[in-house]
Design a protein that fits this description.
The structure holds 2 protein chains of 2 kinds.
Chain A lengths: L1 H5 L3 H16 L8 H26 L7 H19 L1 H24 L5 H20 L8 H4 L2 H7 L1 E2 L2 E2 H19 L1 H11 L1 H6 L4 H26 L11 H11 L11 H20 L6 H23 L5
Antiparallel strand pairs in A: 1-2
Chain B lengths: L7 E10 L2 E11 L4 E5 L6 H8 L7 E6 L2 E2 L5 H6 L2 E5 L10 H5 L6 E4 L2 E4 L1 H14 L17 H14 L4 E5 L7 H16 L3 E6 L2 H7 L2 E6 L2 E7 L5 H14 L7
Parallel strand pairs in B: 3-10, 3-11, 6-9, 9-10
Antiparallel strand pairs in B: 1-2, 1-4, 4-5, 7-8, 11-12
Helix pairs in contact in B: 4-5, 5-6
The chains are: A mainly alpha, B alpha/beta.
């Protein structure tokens, strides 16, 4: 219990509880219906993958603005390459492309000693440009064969009556949390974000840690893109636009500090839940969809203030 | 007290940063079981010298021998593996991690489950708890507490305790008592002497000659990248050594910071 309260994700737990209570009270549109919950959890799972990767990068005191484009690029690659290679191979190609984008950016950041915000902003534009050139702006679809392929169904369908994306999210979140909190790699990742100089003075290869974080982040974003397309196998050039901002918002709402070294995988997931729920509820309430961004902004700022007060209350020097 | 061959031997060391000549033909021997005071003004080259010893800078020319063997490659990780530990005021502990996690950072003990290396929390906690008690941290500090809760002196104690626990052979203390209270400073100085008595080589860097003269066996004075004096504390008083520093300071012009 003490661990939970002191953990960075605690603010997000409170946030989710308050949000659900409010949504239940102002329940005009049937919040607690199977349809709503199924939609919200599906979109939450997708955003949560991207947010978890983002959280890892933020914990090393860097940032990755390219995740939305990487998400789109991996999805487009998955669909476009499939007719030639089949579903399993195109799955691997798409993940490979995502990992490659992460690796190239990480090397530019670490070896070139460049600010990650600039490098990944370049990555955002570059990957988005590749999507436009590659698809020519046209829409691609899966063939019926590819739709019924076991791997497509395993990633995009329902398993035991639950959206497959949820099951994948739970499995990968548990693994990432264990890696982060219970392995030497995780200890070094947190140390790299907390104080790079100190970590290096203990012999930690912070350059490799950061490269690993960037590659993991891109892989998770790419995997989210593939999951989305397995569920709805149709690409469009704007796939994943603005997603980097939602992912950063989710990670920050979930307790990640941009100063590095502090964050939470669970928090990132709950942050994604908050972002997606607000979008859904606002649409359900009949608000113009453009209001959604405004609300995300308000929630983000409120969450940061709340998390900071909470951290100070718990005795952290934030 | 000193062994026959030096633990660290530096011969004709030169280091250039571009046009800046940071170390000029420095030769010095350090023996195990010695406490050396490395003294000099800001920019005298003392920190640069120890950065060579702990692998951060590679010398432009000259040789470094460690335990009789010539050092070929300079990297912080190699120096740590050889048992050279540097204790700096602001570096070495990550505020966001617990004492136990900091203690083992970079060489975490693991328990393998299905071949996956998991941190051995029980061992990390047990050993670091023993050390923080031994090195005089408050009783209400536990190994699970984050380092940000500790005072400056407690941080130094944790770093020194860690240096002892990992059976280091050389402990380099870079201005270890800056910003510490009087009592904490005394505590850190006592620890430095203890390390020496356990047979370690302790290099104590400071610009306070009077403080280190009481502790050290030998004082090495650096000035403008050169070694200007190397004398045992029994042969020269602190006042005489301070005069050397003043003389050194007068003959050179104002110099760049390193």
């Amino acid at each position: 219990m003490k661990q939970l309260v002191r953990g960075q994700g605690f603010g997000a737990i409170i946030g989710v509880a308050v949000m659900l209570a409010v949504f239940t009270l102002i329940d005009f549109s049937g919040w607690w219906t199977i349809q709503t919950i199924s939609n919200v959890t599906q979109f939450t799972a997708i955003l949560a993958f991207v947010a978890m990767g983002q959280a890892l990068v933020i914990m090393t005191k860097e940032i990755d603005l390219s995740v939305g484009s990487v998400y789109g690029l991996a999805g487009v690659a998955f669909i476009t390459v499939e007719p030639a290679l089949g579903v399993p191979a195109s799955f691997l190609v798409a993940l490979g492309i995502a990992a490659l984008v992460g690796l190239v950016q990480a090397i530019a950041v670490v070896k070139g000693e460049l600010p990650s915000m600039i490098v990944t902003l370049g990555g955002l534009f570059t990957a988005r440009g590749i999507i436009y050139v590659w698809t020519g702006g046209s829409v691609h679809n899966f063939s019926p064969d590819a739709r019924s392929h076991p791997l497509t169904r395993l990633l995009g369908g329902e398993l035991f009556g639950i959206e497959a994306a949820i099951l994948w999210l739970v499995a990968i979140a548990v693994i990432l949390s264990l890696v982060l909190w219970a392995t030497p790699f995780g200890n070094r990742l947190l140390a790299t974000g907390g104080s790079r100089e100190s970590a290096e003075s203990r012999g930690v290869r912070t350059d490799r840690v950061k490269i690993a974080a960037f590659v993991l982040c891109s892989l998770l974003a790419g995997f989210a893109g593939i999951l989305t397309l397995c569920n709805q196998p149709q690409t469009h050039v704007t796939l994943g636009e603005n997603m980097e901002l939602e992912a950063i918002a989710a990670a920050v709402i979930g307790g990640c500090l941009l100063t590095g070294g502090r964050g939470s995988i669970l928090g990132a997931i709950l942050g994604a839940l908050i972002v997606v729920s607000f979008r859904y509820e606002l649409i359900a309430l009949g608000a113009p969809s453009s209001w959604y961004i405004t609300f995300v902004g308000v929630v983000l700022i409120t969450a940061v203030i709340f998390n900071q007060k909470l951290a100070r209350f718990l005795g952290h020097s934030v | 007290m000193t062994s026959t061959h030096p633990l660290i031997q530096v011969r004709n060391l030169d280091l250039h940063f571009g046009a800046f000549h940071a170390l000029k033909n420095v030769s010095v021997d350090f023996h195990a079981g010695e406490l050396i005071g490395l003294v000099g003004d800001n920019g005298a080259g003392k920190t640069t010298l120890i950065r060579v010893l702990c692998g951060i800078y590679a010398p432009s020319s000259g040789e470094v021998f460690f335990d009789g063997k010539k050092v070929e490659k300079f990297h912080p990780k190699l120096a740590i593996d050889q048992g050279i530990e540097t204790i700096q005021q602001s570096v070495g502990l990550c505020d966001n991690l617990s004492i136990a996690r900091n203690f083992y950072l970079g060489r975490e003990p693991v328990k393998r489950i299905l071949g996956i290396p998991f941190l051995d929390f029980a061992r990390m906690r047990e050993k670091s708890t023993r050390v923080i008690r031994q090195f005089g941290l408050r009783d209400n500090v536990s190994a699970d507490d984050e380092v940000e809760r500790l005072s400056g002196g407690e941080r130094q104690s944790v770093k020194i305790g860690r240096a002892v626990e990992f059976k280091n052979r050389v402990v380099i203390m870079d201005e270890p008592t800056n910003h510490l209270s009087v009592r904490e400073r005394e505590h850190v100085n006592e620890l430095a002497v203890q390390l020496k008595e356990q047979g370690l080589l302790v290099i104590y860097i400071t610009h306070d000659i009077f403080q280190v003269h009481r502790l050290a066996d030998r004082i090495v004075i650096m000035e403008n990248g050169e070694k200007v004096a190397d004398a045992s504390t029994s042969s020269m008083t602190a006042e005489e050594l301070e005069e050397v520093i003043r003389q050194g300071g007068r003959v050179v012009e104002k110099q760049e910071a390193v």
